[in-house]
Amino acid sequence: MKTAFFAVLSLVATASAFAPQPSFGARSMTHLFSGGKYEGQLFDNDAKKDVYAAWDPSQPRSPLNFNPFETWEGNSPDASGFYPGEGGYKDPIRGDVSFQKMMDERAESEQRAANPKPGDVPGAPGCRN
């Protein structure tokens, strides 16, 4: 009796492995964005300034339209506009840094903050926040 029970149980268990699986509700990972202008290249301050110059806050955010100086939870984006923890994030190739370069970049950052681009407001399509 026990052997018949286990035989039937094993048939039912193996049969379900060959049954078609429903795809309803299944999630597949798709990458909507791919490849920023500087992906795989040096993404230093000059490259960020180039990306920033082309950024239009009124247009939807994309790998070619994002603010490279915008931070999210304390992190900077990669060369395609993704942040650490997001699916498409790739650690950018960074340039050498010195104290003087950091001070120069800080002055530029303060200038950018004092003179934001038109349309650079929270909730704009090109902004992360």
TrEMBL record:
Signal sequence, start to end: 1-17
Keywords recorded for this protein, A-Z: Signal
Annotated Basic and acidic residues bias: 102-111
Chain segments carrying region Disordered: 101-129
Protein name, as recorded: Uncharacterized protein
Lineage: Eukaryota, Sar, Stramenopiles, Ochrophyta, Bacillariophyta
